[in-house]
Amino acid sequence: MGVFQSYLTSNFIFTIPTDSPSYLFGLPTEILIKIFSCLKVQELLLGVGSVCRRFHSIVQNAKELWVRLETQAEFTQQSFHRIIVSHALLFKALTMQYSQKIVRYNSPDNYIECSLSSCINIVHLDLSYNTSVVTSCFLKSMPYLKSIKFVGCTSICPEDIIENLKHCTSVKEIDISKCVQFKNYHSMELADVCDMLSGLVIFLAEWTCF
After folding, report:
1. What is the pTM of this model?
2. Going from the N-terminus, what domains does the chain have, and what CATH number goes with each?
């Protein structure tokens, strides 16, 4: 007698044999989405997304899988478009760390920034050590943004960050630690931003503005 496992979905209970080699393929889509949601983006795209057409379709089209994305991968222009641009409207939390120089040097000017401008539903954004982002103009397009991490983002000039930060009325926290381009004389301008945006906390090296 085979081994069976019962699963409860929102609509029904079903039972399948767990000793069957095709047992995973018989799972309903909503169960597969819950399983896939535990994986990292590289595992989704290069692993389960390449198993079969059904898995590929689920990975690309299931909105639940793209609400939060955390990656330290260096994208190519093609993979950046397939992952970031194609799912921009779905992201609520996006962590895209490290340089992304391949994308920057093989794309039109400000391609990364323009793509980030499409992420209009972002709440938490982490671009730490991304040295290819040269302007923070995309902040104006993120009305729900609450926290930003620009740790080590040394390619954005302080005046750019300060000016665009003024338009982020929903932001409560920004981390610009290790941004060596910020000098002591920028602290007054940052303090003015703190006064303008009630409740904002700015982290800059050993100095914190409340």
Report:
1. 0.78
2. 1-66 (1.20.1280.50), 67-210 (3.80.10.10)
